[in-house]
Amino acid sequence: MKLGILTSYSDQMVEVASRIGFDALELQAGSWGDPPPSTAAAARTRCAGARDRLQEAGISVTALGFYGNHIAAKPSVLRKQFAAIMNIGDVLGCKVIASLVGRLPDTTIAENISAYKKVFGPIAKMSEDRGFEVAFENWTGFRGYPFQGTNVAYRPEAWDMLFDAVDSPALGIEYDPSHLHFQMMDYVGLVHEYGEKIFHVHAKDTEIFWDKLRENGIFSSGWWRFRVPGWGEIDWTKFISALQDVGYEGGIAIEHEDPVYSGDRFDEGLQLGYNTLAPLLVRS
């Protein structure tokens, strides 16, 4: 497994990652323009400098992040965007696109399946043909009660429905235990259940304020927050062990959304997260 950071590309972030000890990055696909380069030649031109700098630093790209409410997009436009991101991946030696399904407004999970098939069926076929994998992050997208959210792929019931609707080896999960933990779900057990579908991992912790939860309940706000790994309640030893049990060999990217280690302390948070995870990993 390789340990990295979710970030936009910059020479400065490559330097920071290298200095701390990371050997990988998950890079936002928008780092090379929006829209991304539409041809293989354009991708080589735009991304060659980043490729060379990353190689010099000994840092791999484990995933390209392309997040948005894709289920609501025009299928033909989204296919072109995914094709362009695959061009970037070919230049950078990365074959995983980390993404979101999204959600149609004011609908159930089941009511999204028809649109999902129209949007992601062709993308799955293109991914298979080009040797790519698409990993849906299990972000909830909740904005308060009622918990409809803005992304359907946030729980196992939805994963099963999505993978049944488009049965493709190219579609899987970008697994983030922090989103499962604040929903009181078994983030370790689910690794064993869905191991073959885990294509990429986000490392983010969750701190729960139990006094606020007991006083105001789950329909209130302010009873949990995201932290860097090691500063919340995730049992990282058990979680990494579960990944090793299922034979996971992909990337783990710290998604740094810790409000304590923000601003001028951002790099300090990355260092703390690295210190927590690096000793647990069999690096490859």
Secondary structure: elements and pairs:
Blueprint: E1 2-7, H1 11-20, E2 24-28, H2 40-57, E3 60-66, H3 75-92, E4 96-99, H4 113-130, E5 133-137, H5 156-165, E6 171-175, H6 177-181, H7 189-194, E7 198-203, E8 205-208, H8 210-216, E9 224-227, H9 236-245, E10 251-254, H10 266-277
Parallel strand pairs: 1-2, 1-10, 2-3, 3-4, 4-5, 5-6, 6-7, 7-10
Antiparallel strand pairs: 8-9
Helix pairs in contact: 1-2, 2-3, 3-4
Please tell me about this protein's structure.
The chain is of the alpha/beta class. It has one domain: Divalent-metal-dependent TIM barrel enzymes (TIM Barrel, Alpha-Beta Barrel). It is 40% helix and 18% strand. It has ten helices and ten strands. It has an eight-stranded parallel beta barrel with strand order 1-2-3-4-5-6-7-10, surrounded by four helices. The chain has a two-stranded antiparallel sheet with strand order 8-9. Helix 4 links the parallel strand 4 and strand 5. Helix 2 crosses helix 3 and helix 3 packs parallel to helix 4. The longest helix has 18 residues. The radius of gyration is 18 Å and the shape is globular. The mean pLDDT is 95.
Q: Which CATH class?
A: Alpha Beta
What fraction strand? 15-25%
Our count of domains comes out at 1
Overall 3D geometry? globular
Radius of gyration: 18 Å
CATH architecture: Alpha-Beta Barrel
Tally the helices: what do you get? 10
In short, what is this structure?
With 284 residues, the chain is α/β, with parallel strands linked by helices. It has helices at residues 11-20, 40-57, 75-92, 113-130, 156-165, 177-181, 189-194, 210-216, 236-245, 266-277; strands at residues 2-7, 24-28, 60-66, 96-99, 133-137, 171-175, 198-203, 205-208, 224-227, 251-254.
